[in-house]
Automatic annotation (TrEMBL):
Family per similarity comment: Belongs to the MTB12 family.
UniProt cross-references to InterPro entries, sorted A to Z: Mtb12-like_C
Entry protein name: Low molecular weight antigen MTB12-like C-terminal domain-containing protein
Region (Disordered) location: 21-53
UniProt keyword Iron, yes or no: no
Organism this protein belongs to: Nocardia terpenica
Signal peptide range in chain numbering: 1-20
Pfam families per UniProt: Mtb12_C
């Protein structure tokens, strides 16, 4: 059970940690480009946010795991997060609670860009146990890096919980 909680907790940490890295509005002094898409939306190179640094992710982890941060804010960093929140308003709370209850510690050690996807390599531990290494997948969506929903859902499932957002 502890391993399952760790996986679920890691999903939250990763999602929330990445959230602050691709969300800032950077004013470059130019006006907004009009959207002229006539086909089905696809991730283009211009939709891909800058790759966050390891230091950025580690600095922002603590802030984004704050239980006082509204779930409505956190959910924007989960793939199709608003839809997930509509289906299951408690999805993120379940994961954050598991993180806190199991004293999960996490450290991002590397970030690898794969174009419109990236992988964050992390070391994490639960209740003081030996750190374990894991890869956390993200996709570029709406100009931000977002945790792949399937990975977050697997974390919930490993906790023995179900979420309507995962169906």
């Amino acid at each position: 059970m502890t391993g399952r909680i760790a996986v679920a907790s890691l999903a939250v940490v990763a999602a929330l940690g990445m959230s602050a890295c691709g969300s800032g509005d950077k004013n470059t002094g130019s006006s907004s480009k009009p959207k002229t898409t006539t086909s089905a939306p696809a991730t283009t190179q211009s939709d891909v946010p800058p790759v966050p640094s390891v230091a950025d992710l580690n600095q922002l982890m603590a802030q984004t795991l704050d239980p006082n941060t509204p779930d409505e804010q956190k959910v924007q960093y989960l793939e199709d997060g608003q839809q997930a929140l509509q289906k299951d308003p408690d999805m993120i709370k379940k994961l954050v609670t598991a993180y806190q209850q199991n004293n999960v510690k996490i450290e991002v050690t590397n970030v690898t860009s794969l174009g419109d996807q990236l992988t964050a390599k992390v070391n994490f531990s639960v209740n003081g146990a030996q750190p374990t290494e894991a890869d956390v997948p993200f996709i570029a969506q709406d100009g931000k890096w977002k945790l792949q929903k399937s990975w977050a859902c697997a974390g919930l499932q490993n906790l023995g919980q179900q979420s309507p957002a995962c169906s």
